[in-house]
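Figure 3 (text version): structure tokens given as input.
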């Protein structure tokens, strides 16, 4: 930086520590195993194994719900409602799906291997149930979930 005009005097800010500073926790930047992770919120799930398992179940269910919202038909094109109502409902469902998808993504960014595995497993199971049409064949898929009436 010495050769760049105006940049030679730049010094990183000095951080003074005193007794009132909060301790900084190290954030993992590679995958790790273990229950001591911060998933979505600081301090959650904590250091208890039961809360970690609950967090894994939560992420798994979120992943399944994202796939369900992706592959379900909430409004049939044959509905008698206007294009505006149909578009608003589809937009709300799309926003919900994207929001939940980003929550799953942020959970995976905790770099906890267990969270990664349950997120992929939830998306896989959700696709198998709702996207592959193996469980719900094409004729049954038309009515699952039943289209919402606009009236």
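Below: residues designed for each position.
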């Amino acid at each position: 930086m010495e050769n760049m005009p105006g940049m030679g005097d730049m010094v990183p800010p000095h951080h003074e520590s005193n007794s009132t500073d909060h301790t900084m926790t190290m954030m993992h930047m590679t995958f790790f195993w273990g229950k001591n992770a911060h998933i979505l919120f600081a301090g959650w799930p904590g250091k208890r194994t039961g809360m970690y398992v609950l967090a894994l179940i939560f992420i798994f269910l979120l992943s399944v719900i994202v796939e369900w919202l992706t592959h379900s038909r909430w409004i049939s094109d044959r509905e008698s409602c206007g294009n505006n109502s149909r578009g608003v409902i589809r937009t709300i469902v799309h926003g919900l799906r994207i929001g939940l998808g980003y929550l799953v993504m942020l959970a995976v960014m905790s770099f906890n291997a267990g969270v990664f595995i349950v997120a992929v497993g939830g998306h896989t199971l959700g696709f198998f149930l709702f996207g592959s049409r193996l469980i719900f064949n094409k004729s049954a898929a038309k009515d699952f979930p039943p289209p919402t009436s606009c009236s």
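The radius of gyration is 23 Å.
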